[in-house]
Specification:
With about 350 residues, the chain is mostly helical. It has one domain. It is built from twelve helices and no strands. The radius of gyration is 20 Å and the shape is globular.
């Protein structure tokens, strides 16, 4: 168990960790921008393999703290939500996907910590009103991205045409693609229904991913609990959490292989980008766990779930030239102001 530092140092560490997590969560899909990922089942397994490798390295650095199997449940929950990411991107786009799953992620994670759902202890802050305002602004900021439009070509079916921010354009040129996934066969209305439904489910699952870790920490303070004496340092649970992710993704991939009669759709060009994406996500999550330890989840959740959409928009403007026009730029500036205000309110609620 790592000793707790002074309050000032703890806050600084927490906010720096939150900033790194926001940047990496907003960037981890960038390596996959020009890769054909098909139905996403092969990609999610590659991504989760990279996540587990990072966990192994972190576990060795921390001198192999005690492994709590219950912490694996959080990884299982996350992996279950993650298998829907590619279908979400293909149906409603990453921007609208982030809007929906980010909002439900923020609300579920914040509310469960703030009000003590799922057997956890309710987390208090010194200024509850500011915390409520910060959480609300974090959700509102996500809706702004819904109105940001991007310029995307309509002559190809690769993921190069999938914008990082706005809704995926569904066009008839997909008929030229030689390899369809089940998503490509849906109608426009079905795209919207399936994509939005999956995003809601994924968001709720994402928001619950740290519940087992927080539960163990809370019950470690009770002498009559089986978790009595468990570590209060969130990163001590990263190996168990990420092992749950890898185990669950492997089970889903094997089930997929069985369903495909041992002829799964593999996309070799997505291996290295998918591995890099997984590494970025794993580092971001380690930073998030560090922020949870330093700030508490009730503070870190609104901050870390609000920022990635803005970072994705920045990539869309400067790297991929998807977002153009004065109106879009003004909306981005407004979104940034809302995110910054919400983050400040959440931060000051802790001080």
């Amino acid at each position: 168990m790592v000793p707790v530092s002074s309050n000032g140092t703890d806050l600084t560490t927490g906010f720096i960790s939150s900033a790194i997590a926001v940047i990496l969560f907003g960037s981890n899909f960038v390596p996959l921008k020009k890769c054909d990922t098909g139905d996403g089942m092969f990609l999610q397994w590659i991504l989760c393999s990279a996540i587990w490798l990072v966990a192994l390295i972190v576990n060795l650095i921390l001198h192999c703290p005690k492994f709590w199997p219950f912490a694996m449940l959080g990884g299982c929950i996350w992996a279950t939500g993650n298998i829907a990411v590619v279908p979400i991107i293909k149906t409603i786009g990453l921007g609208l996907g982030i809007l929906i799953w980010g909002s439900f992620n923020a609300l579920t994670g914040w509310a469960s910590s703030r009000f003590g759902w799922f057997g956890m202890d309710a987390q208090e802050v010194s200024k509850p009103l500011l915390n409520y305002i910060g959480a609300g602004l974090s959700v509102i900021s996500a809706f702004i991205f819904l109105f940001i439009k991007s310029e995307i070509p309509s002559n190809t079916c690769s993921l190069d045409t999938t914008p990082l921010i706005t809704e995926h354009a569904i066009n008839h040129t997909q008929d030229n693609c030689h390899d369809y996934s089940w998503v490509d066969k849906l109608s426009t209305v079905q795209h919207r229904i399936v994509g939005c439904s999956l995003a809601v489910i994924s968001g709720i699952l994402y928001g619950s991913t740290f519940v087992p870790i927080i539960y163990i920490k809370d019950h470690s303070k009770r002498n009559d609990s089986i978790y009595a004496g468990a570590s209060q340092y969130d990163l001590d649970y990263v190996f168990a959490h990420f092992s749950g992710i890898f185990l669950t993704s492997t089970v889903y991939f094997l089930a997929y292989c069985v369903a495909m009669r041992n002829s799964p759709k593999l996309y070799p060009e997505a291996i290295l980008p998918g591995f890099l994406s997984g590494i970025l996500w794993a580092i971001a999550t380690c930073c998030w766990l560090k922020a949870n330890h330093s700030l508490s989840a009730v503070v870190s959740f609104p901050i870390i779930t609000a920022g990635p959409g803005f970072i994705a928009a920045i990539w869309g403007v400067f790297m991929f030239k998807e977002i153009q026009g004065l109106q879009n730029y003004l909306l981005m500036i407004f979104a940034f102001c809302v995110i910054l205000t919400g983050a400040l309110c959440t931060a000051f609620s802790k001080i």
